[in-house]
Amino acid sequence: MSALGAAKGGGEGINPTASIIGIVIIIAALAITAVMAAPALVAVIGVIIGGALVGFGVHFVPVGGAPAAMGQSPGIATGVAMLAAGAGLAGLFGGAWAAANPAFGIAVVIAAGAIGGGLMMAITCLMVNIVYIFGMGIPAASGKVAKDPITGDSQAEYKSQGTEGHGLPFISYVGGVIGGLLGGAGGTLIYYELLQVYSAMLPAMFNASAEEVLPIAVSLAGIFAVGMFLVNAVLAAYNITGTIEGPHDPKFKRFPRAIIGCAVASAVCGLFAVLIVVV
């Protein structure tokens, strides 16, 4: 089938059969973990929750791609995975800093990661609007709604003909920050849970002290957290299929499907991340 003859990608419904298969895979991953690495079961559950948060958060981020670079579509002029990865890495740096302090519990660590991701998105959205408004001379307007759901400002008067809108209307800005908060929190939760597993199991594996294996534990947790963040961001990008303005975009309704997919992928990745220090 040619590209022109192919059906339009993406729907909003959930495939029941695929969802059941996904749930079975999650249960199987948890069962294998319970048998082969019982102390890490809670960590794998945390990894699954973190992956679902990343997949959900990506749907809040306004992504405009190439059309946004030309002022023909609202959003940030880059791809979903790249933007989500930027927010996630910023969150991971904040979360890793907090995790290195023994006085901070899991709540502080995840909050630090969320703030890092949200702050990155807030600055990015601000600079995008400065470039659009003062550099390109175009106002921020949505093509998906008649009025901004938060401010109530009318959009049609500011939208250029022949475009789907441009810049970042206020609802898209708020959505970007929320997406950064969720992505940063999810990525940090994955990192924190894996760090606890590696810190507990590596000393016996290498017959060394906890202080001696700490750099290895931090490195492994960081590598797997970044990798899982990218896996979940790409899965969410395939679910969005193109551009999205934020929570007011009709594509946002697809997020349940992404959450299921990201949970399944995180369960499998989390299982392998744990088994490397058990088998």
TrEMBL record:
Pathway: One-carbon metabolism; methanogenesis from CO(2); methyl-coenzyme M from 5,10-methylene-5,6,7,8-tetrahydromethanopterin: step 2/2. It is found in: Cell membrane. Its EC number is 7.2.1.4. One of its GO terms (biological process) is methylation. It is an enzyme of class 7 (translocase). It catalyses: 5-methyl-5,6,7,8-tetrahydromethanopterin + coenzyme M + 2 Na(+)(in) = 5,6,7,8-tetrahydromethanopterin + methyl-coenzyme M + 2 Na(+)(out). Keywords: Cell membrane, Membrane, Methanogenesis, Methyltransferase, One-carbon metabolism, Transferase, Translocase, Transmembrane, Transmembrane helix. One of its GO terms (molecular function) is tetrahydromethanopterin S-methyltransferase activity. Its main location: membrane. It comes from the Archaea. Belongs to the MtrD family. Part of a complex that catalyzes the formation of methyl-coenzyme M and tetrahydromethanopterin from coenzyme M and methyl-tetrahydromethanopterin. This is an energy-conserving, sodium-ion translocating step. The complex is composed of 8 subunits; MtrA, MtrB, MtrC, MtrD, MtrE, MtrF, MtrG and MtrH. This is Tetrahydromethanopterin S-methyltransferase subunit D. It comes from Methanofollis tationis. The gene is mtrD.
